[in-house]
Specification:
This is Ig-like domain-containing protein. The chain crosses the membrane at residues 120-142. It comes from Pangasianodon hypophthalmus (Striped catfish). Residues 18-104 form the Ig-like domain. This protein is α+β, with helices and mostly antiparallel strands and 198 residues long. The protein has two domains: 19-109, Sandwich (Immunoglobulin-like), CATH 2.60.40.10; 110-198. It has helices at 103-106, 111-197, and strands spanning 19-22, 34-41, 48-53, 56-61, 70-77, 86-92, 95-100. The chain has a four-stranded antiparallel beta sheet with strand order 4-3-6-7, with no helix packed on it. Strands 1-2-5 form a three-stranded antiparallel beta sheet, with no helix packed on it. It is rod-shaped, with a radius of gyration of 51 Å.
Amino acid sequence: MTKGFNLSFCFLAPVSTPVIRNERGNGSVSSTEQCFLLCTVENGEDVKLSWYRGNERLNITNNTDLSVPLNLPLQIQLHDNNTNTYICVSANPVSNKTTSLNIAQLCDHNSGQTDRSRSLLPVLISAGVFLLIISIPVWLWLKRKNNKFVKKLEELTYTEVKITAHGAERVKKEEKTRITDDQEQETVVLYSAVKSLT
């Protein structure tokens, strides 16, 4: 009697590399100094997703619904002395891929401000250079205009003084003429009076 048996082969594709992101946006940290992370990987046959802190596995997940990606959240406390290494691992029976968490990039609440400051730096430099380029011609124009005004003011002052001096001479001449005329009139009047008496 012959015994028959079937051999079935299952070919598993290598797993894809997991991606870590901040669930609340890049650099977003709550007031309690907690960082909410999410590790995501493309799902596949026998794929498992795990979080590790150093060599300690914190949690693991898998999903038989291959149409949706695998997601595994992680919440960590941030401290000045937090030097722990966090790693997200995707694995199946034939392969595994790891992604290390960059705490400074994803969980530092100052990183968002630093990135914004760095992005604003070229804009501020450009604005400063533009203002400098504009201000130099304006300053030169104002200086030139001011010099012209001062020169014109000096000319007006000189002319006014000259006219005033000339006017004073003319006034003196008119006064002399008037005095002479008055004296002549008085002489004529006196002469007439003397002639009448004689």
